[in-house]
Every structure is written in C-alpha cells, then in structure tokens.
Amino acid sequence: xxxxxxxxxxxxxxxxxxxxxxxxxxxxxxxxxxxxxxxxxxxxxxxxxxxxxxxxxxxxxxxxxxxxxxxxxxxxxxxxxxxxxxxxxxxxxxxxxxxxxxxxxxxxxxxxxxxxxxxxxxxxxxxxxxxxxxxxxxxxxxxxxxxxxxxxxxxxxxxxxxxxxxxxxxxxxxxxxxxxxxxxxxxxxxxxxxxxxxxxxxxxxxxxxxxxxxxxxxxxxxxxxxxxxxxxxxxxxxxxxxxxxxxxxxxxxxxxxxxxxxxxxxxxxxxxxxxxxxxxxxxxxxxxxxxxxxxxxxxxxxxxxxxxxxxxxxxxxxxxxxxxxxxxxxxxxxxxxxxxxxxxxxxxxxxxxxxxxxxxxxxxxxxxxxxxxxxxxxxxxxxxxxxxxxxxxxxxxxxxxxxxxxxxxxxxxxxxxxxxxxxxxxxxxxxxxxxxxxxxxxxxxxxxxxxxxxxxxxxxxxxxxxxxxxxxxxxxxxxxxxxxxxxxxxxxxxxxxxxxxxxxxxxxxxxxxxxxxxxxxxxxxxxxxxxxxxxxxxxxxxxxxxxxxxxxxxxxxxxxxxxxxxxxxxxxxxxxxxxxxxxxxx
Length: 586
Hints:
By secondary structure, this protein is an alpha+beta fold. Helix content is 63%, strand content 7%.
C-alpha cells in the first residue's frame, strides 16, 4: 500500500498531527544533542565511557531525521522498526569512531570525527531511500521509478530544508545586530547559548521538512526544473572529460600525478558524470526521455566513465606501491571500487542496443547497496582504515621496503588512533636500535610538527650547532637532532645556535645549553643515552635584553643556586622555565 500523502488526501487534521509529530521529534532531538554537548564540553561525561558518548551522539543526530522523513510515508510499525535499526547501527558506528581514537579525556571531549558524520549521513540517506520505496510497494525491490521519485524528491526537500534553516538562523543574527546597535544585546547573547541554539535549529529544520512535505507539487516542480537544467550540463562535462582523456597521450601523466590529488580529481569527474547521466535518464519512462542529443551524450558519458575510474585505480596503485596504505587511500580505494561498478554497468548500458540505457537501473540499485555496505565496513572494526594502514605501514618497515629514517613514526603517534599507538609501542622494543630509537622519540613528542618524514629529515639536516671556544658538540647529541628538531627549529643554516656544555646539577655529568638570539634551552642525557629537553631559560628581570643573550653566552656562563640553577649571563639572572613533555612509563 502506498502511504505517500499530500495535503489533499491526508486532510487538515492529519496534516496537523504530522506537524505536531515533526515538531516534537525536532524538539527531542535538539534537547538530546544539547545534553550530550553540555556533558562533553563540561567534562560531566564519565571519562571511562567516551565511546558511549559517540554512540549516543551519532544516533541522536541522525536517527530523528529518519522519523522526520518517514512519518506519514511509512506505516507506524515499519517506521518504528526502521528507526530503531538505523539508530542501533548509527550507535555502533559512533561507538567505534570514538573507541578507536586516543583521547585525552581531561581536555578532549569525545566528539565525533568529520568522516564518520559525513559518510554516516550518506549511508543513512541511501539506505532510507532503498527501504522506503520497497516498504511502500510491499516488495523487496520496488519499481525503479519509485526509487528515482523518492530519492530525488527527498534530495530537493533536504536542500530546501537546510537552506530554510540557514536563512532562519541568519535572520535571527541580523535581528540581534539591529537590536545591538541600540544597546539591546539580549538576543545576541541568547543566540550564543548552545541550550537555545540547538533546540531552535532542530525545530526550524523540522518545520522546514513539514512545509516542503505538504507542498508536494511545488517540490516536484522544483525537482523537474533542476533536473532539466542539470541534464544540459551533461554535454559540457562529456566534452571536457573527452578532451582531457584525448590530451593525456600527448601531455603524459606526470602533471596529473604531480598534483598529489589525481585520484580525487578523476573520481570527482566520474561522480559528476554519473549524476548528470541520471538527470538525463530520470525514471526511464518513455515520456520523460530527453532530446536525441542528450541521449547520445549519456551514452558517451557512460563510456568515458571506464577510463576515468581506470585512471583513479592506476594513480592509487602507484601511490600505494610507493608509500603504502593510509586511511585516506583506503577510503579512496573503496570509492574507486564503487565507481568501478558504475563504470562497468554504465558501459554496458551505453553499448547495449534496444531500450535506451535500461541496464543503468540495475547498476544504480546495485551500487547503492554496495555503497551502504562499504561505508558500514569502513567505519566499523571490519575494515577500519586506520588499523589496515598501520598494519601495512609497519609491515613495509619490517620487511625493509622503507628505511627507518624515511618511516613516518608520527603517523603512528598522532594519526592512527589506538592501533597506531600499539604499533609504536611495539616498535620501541624492536631489535633494530635505529627503529627503536626513532619510535621512542616519536612517542615522546607531544605534537606533530612537520608534514612528512622528508621534511623532518631536512629540518634535522639544517640544524646547525656551534660549540663555544674550547668545547665540542657531543656526538650523541648531534646524532639525536632529528628527534629534537622541533625544539631546535631556530638553529638553521642561516643562524646557527651556540652550544655550551655545563654541569648544572653538580652530578658530574654535563648538560647541554643551546642559545639562540632570544633564549637558552637546556638538555639532559638520561641513563638510556637519550637527550631530553629540561626547559628554557629566560631573563627574569631584563626581558628587553633578550636579543643580547647569545653574544654574552659565548663569553661565559655562571650558575646561581636552585634545583636546576639559574644562569647568570652578562650580569643578567635567567630562570629555567621547565619543558613540559608528558612521557608514559615504558
């Protein structure tokens, strides 16, 4: 039974009930999101359960949208089952997103990552518009025209609802500014409060969904115009893509690979072609077929998809072969795999004789199902990109495919969550002394400073230290400048830093003092042979003389009493500012 409604069939009373249901849903969503935000922002959430926060946040953020979209269209029983199922899956994705990361529970709220939110929204949209038409038709697979009608109408409705919500919020801010110029700041202060903003925005979005829903004819009209305009962009995109592919044999691929975003570029072009081909095909009914020029262009576009997706795979394989897997490359590989399904299906539709592009329908449904499955796998423990990337990168290091000096230990430390930290801990116990030392140095860093290992090595090579007269730079210290290069970043080739060895604490072992034009850094050597930053010395009483520190440092340094003594440089007393680097016990 088709439960799709319009204002004429459902009646005024039913329309009011739907409006009330959507408003209540929006209000509950807004209050739930604010409660989670408040708990996370103010440290009220139990620090031992950050993953539960992620689960509730993703479910509260997206599951109510299922209710907004499905009320009045699906039977109450079907809607309840689908909403509960979606909420459960979303909660599991949110749980995994927070649980796999390393969070400082004292300073970092367990908020969700952007990729999980973006891909989670995409999966929910696709899944809803696979399930809703089938549920209304009472079949496992609904007629293709129903899928097209539901999905494209919902897309227009979603865009208009988001635009309405944004415009509403901008108008509130405009009103606050108007009141502000006459000295009334209450509205502006209110808009800055999360307890007001979140429920109001959710209510505005629910209102927009209701307003667009009861104007079914208006939405269909807007959709028709949008499809017509977009379909005439298909020839433009086809000509540009054909020209690009035709030029490649003459220009070569070096320029494309040199962009470092070749896969993203060609996959974006492929996605644009897929969308535009569908705007021309629409629901496949003979009375909706475009002019002959567009029909032929759609066939050409279907053929062009194959080399585009092939280029994406080629670029990915080259990068993976050279540098191994990363989370971004794994996600790109998954997108390219879905793109390959489209490319093969659209190629068959383009070259097939008979009913124009008819196999496109089966391809769209298969690719939609595959997209949902791939997203769920990628953002769950099944195919977690961080875990797969860590396993591949460490395997490359251990088999010698990448030298220890070229390996990106900071990727394990800062960008791959718990899987990376576990791998880094294991590498610190490696039998290879260089691997163990570099892993330990990365483990001690509190931030990622450089973009790549090559840049880190370049900075380490550029570190230049000059010992004061009568002294030399300790060989062990010079060998560890790569691990300390984030602290020695000002000791470049243009301006060397001055080094002095001095026993600061009277234990019979020299510490190292490194002076720049503005400060002195102190380093001590532990029993394991590693040099660690002790702190920075700054002038306590004469901050304006900082630029004269280095010349006086060359002449001589005395010490003043203290746990680690103060320095006296050129008659000025300098106090140690301890270097705070949190180190976990081995």
